[in-house]
Structures are given as C-alpha cells and as structure tokens.
Amino acid sequence: MIIRGPNARRDFHVDPSDEIFYMLRGDMVLEYMQDGQRHQQVIREGERLLVPALTPHSPHRPPDTWGLVVEMKRTPEQTESLLWFCDRCHAQLYDVTMHVADIEGELKAAIEHFDRSVALRTCRQCGDVQPEQPPVPQHPLHAGLGPLIGRYPWPRPSH
Ligand SMILES: [Fe+2]
Question: What integer pLDDT is reported at residue 141 of this predicted model?
Fold first, then answer.
C-alpha cells in the first residue's frame, strides 16, 4: 500500500510477517521495540527498511511524505496485534489482538478506545499520562537515531 503523511499514531504494530518500508518522497521515522528497548530509525527518501516479523513498530510520517509499505497477504486465521508503550519508562500500557476479517474496523476502534481512556493512557509503572492525541510527526533532523534492524536487500538478523 502507498501511504501519505502525516499520520499521528503511537500504537506499535505486530505483524506475523516481515514488512518492507520504502520511502518514495520525504523522510520518516520508524520506532520499534527490540529486546525491551525502544529504538528509532530514520528512513530517508529512496531508502528501504526490512522490519522482521513480530517486531513491534510504529511509523511516524511527517506531512507531505509518501511511502510504500509491502506486507504479506494474511490468511483468515492469522491475527495481528497493536501495542502501546509508556513514553517515559517504556512499560507496556495496552494491547489488542485483531483478526483479519475486520482489521480496519478493529484497528480504528482500538486506537479510539485507547485515546479516550485516561486509565489506559496512564502508566501503572511510573504514572506518566500520555496526551489524548499523539503529536503530528515532524521531519527528522538527524540520521541514524538507532541501530539498524536490517536494511533490504541485506539479510535480516536472525533472532
Ligand atoms: Fe511509565
């Protein structure tokens, strides 16, 4: 699919298959969780990034950017999840597992449910409260904010 920024999201997507992010115009930032740590990776115009299956990732697309995302077609019995993490201490706040049959409806409902709930947005570990709406992403100023998780077409790390 081709996606135009901006998107204002803070949920992390867990896909049962690998995903490829290819920036057609402008730069974006992909946040991802690896080994319990939160990382950021800038994907610049013309670059591709392979996100290994089951890696929680959250794409942040500034305004007027265009990106191609390649995903595997899911089978009806597959599920995928959305996770939310604390901005301050990175503890997991909430998760939802969805079925392919009504993925768009379930995804929208899950995001709205989280945004409306102060209880869900409040970290039980450190007490930090996320705002009701996530901020609109801004253009990344720095390259290479975090370690690479596998740049296509190089082989992805095994884990
Ligand atoms: Fe926290």
Answer: 59
